[in-house]
Every structure is written in C-alpha cells, then in structure tokens.
Amino acid sequence: MSDQRFAAKTIVITGAGGNFGRAGCIHFAKLGARIAAMDNNDSALLETLREVNDAVDGDAPLIQTYICDVTDPKSVQETVEKISNDFGEINMLWNNAGYQGQIKPTLEYDPVDFARVMNINVTGMFIVLQSVAKKMASQKKADGDTTVSHPFSIVNTASVAALRGTPAMVAYSSSKAAILAMTVSSAKDLAPHGIRVNSISPALIGPGFMWTRQNELHAASGSPYFSSDPEQVAQAKVGGVPMKRLGSIDEVIKSVAYLLSDDSSYTTGTNLVVDGGLSAGLKA
C-alpha cells in the first residue's frame, strides 16, 4: 500500500534496531517510503532488515542499513553523507535513538551513567539533528527554492518523563526535558531553511518486554513511589491513565507519521503527547 505522504520519500530513522525504530521502519516501508535505518547494533539492524522484507509481502522495499554511533560527530556526518549519496536526498528524520539508563533514586544514581544518558539522548540527538538539517538546508538551496515552503520534517523522540519527572529516572527525565527545549529552539532556527521540527512524547506503551522490564526495575528501585511488586506497579500506572489502558507502539508510530507528513504542515516546535491522558494538564 503506497501513501502519497511518504511514497518515494527518504526517511532517516535512528535507533532502528530497537522496538520503536524497527516498527517505524516497517510502517513507513509499507507506505512506500525509502528507509535509511541507523543503529550502532549490527545484529539488531539485520533483524530490522529481515522483518521489513518479510512485512512487505513480496514487494521490494528500498531500505538501507547504516552502522553509526550518534555520539560521534564524524560517524554521523559520514553516515548522513552516505545516505544522501545512496538515496539522492533526505526528506524526513525520525530522531529516535536513546538510552534509558539506570532506574535508581537520585541519591543512588551513578554520575557516570547520568553522563552516558545525556551524551546519547541529548548530545547524540543534537548531532544527528544538526547533520541532517544541514543536508536538508543545502538541498533546498540547491533546488533554488526561495519560497516560504517547508518540505522537510524532523521528529525527535522525547517522553512524558520530561513532563512528569518520573521518580528513580532522574537522568532519563532530564535528558527528555532537554529534548523538548532542543525541539523548540531548533524549530525556530530551522524554519527559515524549510525544516519543521517537532517532538513526540509517549508513555505507558505495551504490553511487551520493555513494559514488563521497566515495571520490574521500578519495583526493585526502592523508591517509595513504587510498590515492590511489579504487578502492582503496572496496575498503579494503568490506573493513573484516564483511558485505563496501555498504548501501543503502532499508536506512537501513527503519531510520528502525522508529524513527519504534510498533514502537520503548519506545525513546528510542538510536542505531541501520546499517553492516554496521563499527563493531561502538565506543561514542560
């Protein structure tokens, strides 16, 4: 099934070896997009490639995989240049690579891990955003487009943790709050270059390994905000959601698709929350 919003468009997806990134590769490949899948894990990327090929029912998806360390400017620049050479142009970026870090109360949190979370989630996201945005801006200039058009789109993966300040996740919450600020500031800087920048903030997505494991880690954290029983942790979380259910990865991907596409052509600097109402009324 081809979708004119994405048909023949090149989408760069970082963190493509993870659950969300892989699902995004599959979703956009089915809609006819050309996928540049980036990750630092070769075996995970190969699995993504296999699942994309299996998902398109015999159609020939155009997907290339790229091993890249998002925290290394040279690695990112070389990868973006290779993507541009392979596909001819870059139209969209889902800036999705990230690291959750430890789940421990602030007094017990390892500063080394805090720095690692910030380096991957914030510095790495900025390096990719800047490198891809430079390529997009040069494409617009090369096309001789002097109109007030915005043909390029970037979506950064943030989190409701940035809005709620999730207990025992001080590094992750801090990194995602930084992404919200990065999104707004870069949206203003890049608008004159025809680039829209928005962010997506999911929460309580499941079921699955990630959902179950996070509940186990919260239960083991010793935080007074979580029961020591993972099942009770899960029940309490869902109980706080006005819609009284978990969200699905597919619901997150569809929200990313909206922000990447021209359906949101007058939207930039915005954070789209996908959490069933959990954070309703909260502001960054």
Automatic annotation (TrEMBL):
EC numbers, comma separated: 1.-.-.-
Gene3D superfamilies: NAD(P)-binding Rossmann-like Domain
Entry annotated with the keyword Repressor: no
Source organism, top-level taxon: Eukaryota
Catalytic EC class: oxidoreductase
InterPro entries with a match to the protein in the record: NAD(P)-bd_dom_sf (IPR036291), SDR_fam (IPR002347)
Signal peptide range in chain numbering: none
GO molecular function, one term: oxidoreductase activity
UniProt keyword terms in alphabetical order: Oxidoreductase
The keyword Oxidoreductase is annotated on this UniProt entry: yes
Family: Belongs to the short-chain dehydrogenases/reductases (SDR) family.
Protein name from the UniProt record: SDR family NAD(P)-dependent oxidoreductase
